[in-house]
Automatic annotation (TrEMBL):
InterPro entries: FAD-dep_OxRdtase (IPR006076), FAD/NAD-bd_sf (IPR036188), FAO_M (IPR032503), GcvT/YgfZ/DmdA (IPR028896), GcvT/YgfZ_C (IPR029043), GcvT_C (IPR013977), GCVT_N (IPR006222), TrmE/GcvT-like (IPR027266). It comes from the Bacteria. Residues 713-778 are annotated as: Disordered. Coiled coil: none annotated. Residues 428-702 form the GCVT N-terminal domain. This is 4-methylaminobutanoate oxidase (Formaldehyde-forming).
Amino acid sequence: MIGGGVAGCSVAYHLARLGWTEVILVEQHELTEGTTWHSAGFVGQLRSTVTQTKMIMYSAGLYPELADLTGLDPGWHGVGGLRLATTPERVEESLRLAGAGETYGLGLEVLSGAEAREMLPLLDTGDVRAALWLPGDGWLDPALLARALAAGASRLGVRIFTGVRVVGLDVAGGEISGVRLASTDASTASTASGAEEWTVQAGTVVIAAGAASGRVGRLAGVDIPVVPIKHQYVVTESFDVPTSTPTVRDPDNIVYFREEAGGILVGGYIRTPEIWDTAHPLEEPRTLFPADMPKFQESWESAVRRVPSLGEAAIAKVVHGPEAFTPDGEFLLGETMVRGLWAAAGFCVHGLAAAGGVGKVMAEWIVDGSPEYDVFGMDLRRFGGHARSASWARAKALDSYSKYYDIVYPGEERTAARPLRRSPAWVRHAELGAAFGEKSGWERVNWFESNASLSQEAGPLQEARPEGWAGRIWSSAVRQECLATRDAAGLFDQTSFSKLEVSGPAALTGLQRVCAGQLDKPVGSIVYTQLLNERGGIEADLTVTRLAEDRFRLVTGTAFGVHDAAWLRGHGLDVRDVTSAHACYCLWGPRALDILGSVSADDLTFGYMKAREISVGNVPVLAQRVTFVGEFGWELYCPSEYGLTLWDTLMEAGTPYGMRPAGYRAIDSMRLEKGYRVWGLDITPETTPYEGGLGFAVAGDKDFLGRAALEAAARRPSQDLPATDAAAPDLDADPPAVNAAAQDRDASAQDRDASAPGPDEDPSGAGPAANPTARDTDASGRRLVCLVLDDPRQVCLGGEPVRVGGRPASRVTSGGYGHRVDRSIAYAYLPAGAAPGDRVEVGVTGTWVDATVTAEPLYDPSSTRIRRLPDRLSMMG
């Protein structure tokens, strides 16, 4: 363990608690003297993601355990916290946060300005429109917490060495093998002159070195994109502020404060942050910079307006130190590209609050292979190769810091360090007025503003924006793109999707082991499948195309390629990332066959979930008959150098048929109508295929990673239902009768229609939206269901609370408006007994909206539009 701050001490403690007896922690100074010691220590339990909130709630429960084990005070002050709102927009944000807080059971309250002042008379609340009161909030003394964690770790057998500097990391065959150490000179903190160096052999090494983590990682050739940024706060002289004073955040005025030693600690996030530009961060203990009060002026003036008595208080000290920020303001956790070398860094000012949770998930990850919580948003591997660029990381980190307290609207796009990665057709998208978004460095079309001027079809959202936040980042173009795809065709650029190839004699065997679906199918077959962890949770959701007997291509989400490739490599597969080698355009809609047929002489009538090599104009293309919008068509892959030509060819061919270029917002709307799941939202490492309604994708005729956990879950009594009512999956059972009938119908049509599915494909034809059955539930007693809101102007964005019978029951995983069905749609996990027709309530920005559990998919339930050739569809009327 490299680093003696709260991160290193917490990971060491939790590893020891899981039974690891050979753990060594080294710190070049004394404990906490790097980044931890000067933290302001704020703990706010309600965060923007489920996992962050869980980690902080876990941390709060850890403090009594530490006190009991060590007899030491962990420095916790549970005084509660106020979060102020002074603008209508901030009130909306507060109401959304309050809704999320209900789903966690945090017991928060929404107060008026007057009620906030009554709770804390020091405040001037004349401009406060609302305030959130979070009784579980408070603050920590960072040094006391780290020392309690270190003492707990020592009690459990961890050996701690201070005054020891890491001078090298030994790597052999892509794996960490040892750490080279040397004593430091106590007076200079540098390696002592003539000091003896020694090596500790270790197969697991965790870099938890705060702002110095990037430097330590480079010793092994690993890039950890930590950016040290200067952060400043002040502490006043005592003026008898009670120790029970709640913490206060005033984000509209970019300031926070709390009591300290009878005075007030005041901090803030300035708009013009400064990087600590040094090659050797934290080389000196307890590093601080000279006070910079001109830069702090805005925060101080905001604090004085909020607490007028501060105007007469003298400043006792200024703390201006380095904080370890990251490109997106989230932790950097997980295994690096060097096997066995891990990182627990990037605490970004707020990380102290989750230090216990960081230790928990890191220890579980190291020991068990995956943590209990879904930590992809904190996974070091969420970034691509561009994270190696110091200029990119700095630009993103500065942007993240400067907007730390800004309201972040779902779908809002940041502009720092853009554009970076661009499709071959990017120039054409720009010419068509594309509204670009960014994911994993890729410029992606959200919608084409040129489509907004098309004539409107009547519908509830013909002219009106949705209410609240859903209407803030919105364009009528999205509706037009959905309707064009329904009525003619849409052309979508999905070049950014990650493409991985696995090949060789052992490719099939290895993939069969890690994929829950059956991959042993003829060349040219496409299989929709999941990668599961040992608990049966979904680590990845992707398609696998068999290109040859010994060669497979996996297509996964834009941001998931590095993560998924690492997961596969960790299970012994040789993986090549070929994302940049291929452009991908998706042609979907009832006129797709006419359009593609006009520029290709090849037979295009091959079946659903099949792939063929064809030519489109002069371009060689791999056409995959698959969809993510519920319309007939293909994903069309070509080598990148042909990408612009292929786009131009398809646009020229499709325009006479009414085809429109379309973007990702239209895709998201249409996939909701079909019930297609999104990994990281609807399905995660914390959910199983059966809970997520994906039981049809689990093979019953082979062994695979996670199968034992699914079977064990099936044998456990349901948590929410009587044991006799628990709908447990039988992995070897035949499909239920309703799906068997659909299978027989489609199989009998196979001779007549080349697009009919084979008998071993998803028999319902609905893909992830297959009607839920007993095979789509396990003994956890919960299942992902579709909700339709009564008021179509109220649109969910994810995270909204769901009540059943007036009581908190769940939260929305994802939501949006379905333009083809004119419905406001949301998905949420409900008890397995929930059935179509059941009524629930959904909290949308403080308004409770009635909703109905509805059978899915809402659009084309029989999936005729996907599986049948369009000319047959028209003949059927």
